[in-house]
From TrEMBL:
Residues 16-223 form the Luciferase-like domain. Signal peptide: none annotated. InterPro entries: Lucif-like_OxRdtase_Rv2161c, Luciferase-like_dom, Luciferase-like_sf, SsuD_RutA_monooxygenase. Keywords: Flavoprotein, FMN, Membrane, Monooxygenase, Oxidoreductase, Transmembrane, Transmembrane helix. This is F420-dependent oxidoreductase. It comes from Virgisporangium ochraceum. It comes from the Bacteria. NCBIfam families: F420_Rv2161c (TIGR03619).
Length: 289
């Protein structure tokens, strides 16, 4: 059975502790199985134009929300993996997993903002290689009590990692061929963002299966994030309740284990009151169910 989730707005003028808590309570009270939160560390002008400050850190926010919820999975969509040392990412993720009773999902990706990479002193042109190396390091830290790593971007020896996570699936974002291969190699799930259901059916999922066959690995679960906005239909995930629900059903029929509904606008000027977003999400979910 497909689990529906929501993408939480952790940025902009409506991002307050009270509203973030409201998102989590709305999701849990309305039968959503997971709430996911975006990641930026150094919002440069290009980032701030789309994700205006204040911007709440996903790890700190999820750790806080875990204490205010009981059944809701909480995850990152997505952690920009090259922004943090892999040992830091692994420790924060494992700690939150423990505090939440195994309710954390680590969604990861490569990011897109070259100025933000520059602000953090991370090589943008090598972001794919950094991500692959850091994923190997992070997942090793989840399973081994002591880890060593001798890589291009991080080197350390005999580092103790505890606590180990109780249950910590990694979801790998991105739709490029390298991202699909990365999802097969490291991911419990592939987490493409705003990919059209038809593209997933005709291109994405066949590519995922081919990559799994080439690597001799199982096909990861499918956990896409889809726009969910009521109004004029210009792309999948938009339109009437019935149209958005039909898009979601396409994903359900494709065998998706999770579908994350994203009501966030493409530009902050189009942001709606949270009550409107919550009402629309509840209506869409009821129509799908």
């Amino acid at each position: 059975m497909t689990v529906l989730g929501v993408n939480v707005r952790n940025f902009g003028p409506l991002a307050t502790p009270e509203n973030l808590l409201g998102w989590a309570r709305f999701a849990e009270d309305n039968g959503f199985g997971i709430a996911m939160i975006s990641d930026h560390i150094a919002p440069t002008p290009d980032v701030n134009e789309i994700y205006p400050t204040p911007f709440y850190d996903p790890f700190a926010t999820i750790a806080w929300l875990a204490g205010a919820t009981t059944t809701l999975l909480l995850g990152t969509s997505v952690t920009v993996l090259p922004y943090r040392h892999p040992l830091l990412t692994a420790r924060m993720a494992a700690n939150i997993d423990r505090f939440s009773g195994g309710r954390f999902v680590l969604g990861v990706g490569v990011g897109w903002s070259e100025p933000e990479y520059a602000a953090l002193g991370v090589p943008f042109a090598k972001r794919g290689r950094v991500t692959d190396e850091y994923l190997a390091a992070v997942t090793a830290a989840f399973t081994d009590d002591v880890v060593s790593h001798d890589g291009e971007f991080a080197t350390y020896r005999d580092v103790h990692t505890g606590p180990r996570p109780q249950r910590l699936p990694v979801w790998v974002g991105g739709s490029a061929p390298a991202a699909i291969r990365r999802a097969v190699r490291f991911g419990a799930a592939w987490h493409p963002i705003n990919a059209a259901p038809a593209w997933l059916r005709d291109v994405g999922v066949p590519a995922l299966r081919k990559a799994a066959d080439e690597q001799g690995r199982p096909v990861p679960a499918l956990a896409p994030r889809l726009r969910a906005r009521l109004g004029t239909r210009t792309q999948p995930g938009e339109g009437t309740v019935a149209q958005v629900a039909a898009d979601i059903r396409e994903l359900v029929d494709l065998g998706c284990d999770y579908v994350i509904l994203d009501p966030n606008p493409d530009h902050p000027r189009d942001e709606k009151p949270l009550a409107d977003d919550w009402k629309a999400l509840a209506e869409i979910a009821d129509h799908v169910r």
